[in-house]
Amino acid sequence: MSGLSIAKSLELHLLRPLITHEEVRAGCAQAAAAHLASVSVWPAHVALAVAELAGSDTRVRAAVGFPFGQDTPSIKLAACDRALADGADELAVMLDHGALVDPRDNLAAARVELEQLLEHAGWSPLTAARGRSELTIVIEATMLDLTALDPLLQRLHESPAGFLQTGSGHQPRAVTQEHVRVLRELLPADVAIVAVGGVASLQDAEDLVVSGASRVGSGSAIAIIEQERQDRAARQSRNTPS
Q1: Do the Cβ atoms of 137 and 117 come closer than 8 Å?
Q2: Which end of the chain is more exposed for a tag (fewer CB within 10 A), N or C?
Q3: Does residue 94 lie within any of the structural domains?
Q4: What confidence tens digit (pLDDT) does each residue in 19-38 have?
């Protein structure tokens, strides 16, 4: 990539099972210090993250319905309302994975859930600069036939949703450049892609951004920023006359 830092393309995921309040506080402090784009937290930790990140340029994204999306739509909608009341800047809502595995049989159910989410996209008092809302639709891209989901994804062309996320980060398969490229072809140009799933290194993150992701989410985001710092220091050292 260019000489610009990747920080504003990174989201720190604080979504480990049994993560503590102190770990959320520490992660938010690190994310703010690194000027990351955002942190992603469980709904129960939104208010805590908002307080910790007050005055910073790092946003708070609430992860709703993770990791499988198998809460009922009404439960997800209530969780979204509460997250926004607690100060979340963005919402990432997991679609029911079970309805997406075989869209030929379950596309109608998936479409009903998506429609309910899109109808409530006006929740967010903030609107992305490109005119879409701060609602992220989340699927497990690495476990699905993405082309079979095209009829569902077409609904996003005339919707307020601003982002499509490639996974919860709780599955063992890593998102690839090909996943991002396929989604980029299927999605409207102004729906941004958040690449999530097995992103562990600076090279992983850079490859996904080059492939078309606007943001990369990872529990390793701080380690990725540290790797970037070390790489820059090494380059500067090599270029400094002895």
Answers
A1: yes
A2: C
A3: yes
A4: 999 999 999 999 999 999 99
